[in-house]
Design brief:
A: Rossmann fold; 2 domains; 8-stranded mixed beta sheet; 21 helices; B: alpha+beta; 4 strands
Chain lengths: 616, 104
């Protein structure tokens, strides 16, 4: 952890921001000039430091030597647009200028602009320590894969006889950026200046994801890695059978982490109160910068067990809630679960889908999250075609595999091209399709395809983490605008465009209709998740998509609160459940902290009953 | 001396026409002809307004046309800086004829 650049990685909600802020405070207090940057569209640095930060390097008032920045993809795009179009400002009619700006709103521009800013900091010379509180796993990896892909794209375009046009701009304009991208990769690969830190909780999904991410990074030739295990229960909190069961489970996972990863690991215990404010962060830093902890049998000897019971009662199915989950007026019902990664979205989506299917509706469970673990939940292979869940009549599941979607998308275009054009031209088209934008387009096409499907009564989307979800949902609106621009200019509207346009319109109409779409947020009853959900809900309203359900996860049942630690946590949860009831107009369902992880259909069924009531 | 042709493209993501919800036939055809001429060593260039606005600024005739007729005037084709076609892409035959135009 003593390199100039520190990248924090791991699924959202595991405490990445807390760990990176604690690290930043540690270095700043050591007298090093420190900068912390978040690239997460759903950032909460402002909440942590309790001051406004925004899209610029901002000194933290309470800490000497520390600055922070929230890299806002929208602002980065706006800056990029301004830089690009400024030569024409005032020269051409305002109306035409507005069309140009609108055209640059394409998904590719946003991706490119964010990355452009990101690489700026990798060459920064004015800070001793630069900490990146990176975006969640799947997105991070894509961001990291980009430099490799892009420098390839640029190089090829520059040598190409086609005049050097690439999807991400003329090669000449990017030549300067290529050096920047290359430098970014070199920096990330050098263990003397860069460390990647994986933050994870001692649970199966995060371990599995960390394993996958680490192997992806290794493929990119990045090997300087460390692990932080966050959220470990202190032994004194686990004095009843329920908590002991969870404690023992954590011990198993610590053992697994120790065996799987041959990299330095640190442990941070779950506190009884939320971590907010500089002092508490500094106390986390002390734990972090102690020597790496021995993971095996950590605290085990201190465990003391008292008697207590822990059973959950079921409620009756709530008719209002049932209406939100089932089809209305012969129309299809589409249910989205949004929320920060790691809050239990996949588990709750699966439990919901099973509940709806067992209520008698033909249901499809679909994930657009590249880091989803549906396969582990059902213990059955998930593919890009809907598959019947073993032993079920009504429940099907599938995922959108981005890499495969790209292949299909390319093949669709190429097979059509082959019938019309000669081999050289087909090859040229194929090369054009190897741009990073193709993935966004391809995934999006798949998403549209599923939303528009008529062969399921209910479709449950276990969506990707918040920021990405919003972008995915805003895409139909954006592309619709793009097509409208086409009609402005003489490129002309073709019949194919018309079909595409009506397809998008259908999806937008569906998303905006609460009789067909149920948009739900999953969260823990804690400050940061509530803030983030509020922001996301507001953003959804700007595209006229209302939120109609809230699920609060990991609620401590009264029966298991046997000691002071748990009492404090329970009190914190009660406080935030009250905040949620006040803040959100949508109904709130709750899922208690369960003894075991939600794996397998029996546990999912029970979770469904606990959330929505027991089916007959 | 060879004639120099420049095509000023309307706003779009990329010149090939494959980078959007649907591949664009007109653009694919034009791109093909364009590439062919480049390979033959002709002086022909093309610029997209959203990617190379400075190239549009360099030629006052282009700016004037956009001021008067808005973006629907694009694409514009020039030969040695003079406008020869507006509102649509030149055909293969037209492009070949531009290569042999003599300057007045």
């Amino acid at each position: 952890m003593n390199t100039k650049f520190l990248f924090f990685s791991g699924k959202g909600g595991v405490g990445k921001t807390t760990m990176s802020c604690a690290t930043a405070i540690h270095y700043a207090n050591e007298g090093k000039k420190t900068l912390i940057i978040t690239t997460d569209p759903a950032s909460n640095l402002a909440d942590v430091f309790e001051q406004t930060i925004g899209h610029k390097i901002t000194p933290i008032k309470t800490i000497w030597n520390l600055s922070a920045m929230e890299l806002d993809p929208d602002k980065a795009t706006a800056e990029y647009k301004e830089r690009t179009l400024s030569p024409l400002r005032g020269l051409i009619p305002e109306e035409s200028f507005a069309v140009l700006e609108e055209q640059l709103n394409s998904p590719c521009t946003a991706e490119m602009a964010s990355f452009d800013r990101f690489t700026d900091f990798v060459q920064d010379g004015q800070f001793d320590i630069v900490i990146f509180d990176t975006a969640p796993t799947g997105h991070t990896l894509r961001l990291l894969e980009l430099p490799v892909e892009w420098s390839g794209v640029i190089e090829k375009a520059a040598n190409d006889s086609s005049g050097g046009q690439t999807c991400i701009g003329p090669a000449a304009a990017l030549a300067a950026s290529k050096a920047k991208f290359d430098r970014a990769i070199t920096v990330m690969r050098d263990p003397r200046i860069t460390t990647f830190l994986f933050v994870l909780r001692p649970e199966s999904t995060p371990i599995y994801e960390a394993e996958r991410s680490i192997s992806e990074l290794n493929k990119l030739d990045i090997h300087s890695l460390e692990i932080i295990v966050n959220g470990v229960y202190p032994a004194e909190a686990c004095d009843n059978p329920f908590m002991t069961a969870r404690f023992m489970k954590q011990q198993e996972f610590l053992k697994a982490i120790n065996q799987k990863f041959s990299v330095p690991a640190r442990i941070v215990e779950l506190g009884s109160e939320e971590i907010k404010g500089v002092e508490r962060l500094a106390s986390i830093a002390v734990k972090l910068f102690d020597n790496p902890t021995e993971l095996i049998d950590y605290q085990y000897k201190n465990l003391e067990v008292k008697e207590s019971s822990a059973t959950h009662g079921y409620v009756l199915p709530n008719e209002n809630i049932k209406k939100l989950l089932t089809p209305l007026n012969e129309k299809k019902r589409v249910i989205f679960f949004a929320g920060k990664g790691g809050v239990g979205k996949t588990s709750i989506s699966a439990a919901t889908a099973l509940w709806v299917a067992q209520a008698g509706y033909k249901t499809l469970l679909l994930t657009t999250d590249p880091a989803s673990h549906l396969k582990q939940i059902f213990d059955q292979e998930v593919t890009d075609k809907p598959t019947l869940v073993n032993g079920e009549k009504n429940l099907w599941f599938t995922h959108i595999d981005a890499k495969k979607a790209v292949e299909e998308y390319k093949e669709k275009i190429l097979s059509e091209a082959r019938t019309k054009y000669d081999k050289d031209r087909v090859t040229a088209i194929e090369e054009e399709l190897n741009s990073p934008c193709t993935e966004e387009m391809a995934t999006f096409e798949k998403f549209i395809e599923f939303v528009a499907r008529k062969d399921f009564e209910v479709i449950v989307f276990d969506t990707a983490p918040t920021g990405h979800t919003l972008r995915l949902l805003e895409l139909p609106v954006d592309w619709n605008r793009q097509l409208e621009i086409k009609t402005f200019t003489t490129t002309g509207e073709t019949d194919v465009d018309k079909i595409t346009k009506s397809k998008f319109k259908e999806v937008i109409d569906l998303l905006q209709d609460p009789d067909q779409t149920t948009f739900s947020f999953v969260m823990y009853p804690e400050a940061t998740p509530i803030e983030e959900a509020s922001r996301a809900i507001k953003e959804l309203l700007t595209i006229s998509v209302p939120t109609s359900l809230i699920a609060a996860n990991l609620i401590l049942s009264e029966t298991i609160v046997t000691n002071e630690y748990l009492r404090q946590r329970k009190a914190m949860q009660e406080k935030y459940l009250a905040v949620m009831a006040k803040r959100f107009t949508a109904p709130i369902v709750t899922l208690p902290l369960l003894k075991e992880d939600l794996m397998g259909k029996d546990r999912l069924r029970e979770a469904g009953y606990l959330l929505y009531g027991k089916l007959n | 001396m060879k004639n120099k042709i420049i095509i000023y493209d309307p706003p779009m993501c990329c010149s090939s026409g494959v980078c959007g919800p649907n591949p664009n036939r007109t653009l694919l055809d034009f791109q093909d002809t364009f590439k062919h001429l480049v390979q033959n060593g002709e002086l022909i260039e093309r610029y997209i307004i959203t990617q190379s606005p400075e190239k549009f600024k360099e030629n006052p005739k282009i700016i004037k046309l956009i001021q008067d007729q808005k973006l629907k005037v694009l694409p514009i084709t020039t030969v040695n800086g003079d406008v020869v076609k507006t509102g649509s892409y030149p055909t293969k035959e037209e492009l070949e004829s531009y290569l042999v135009i003599r300057k007045a």
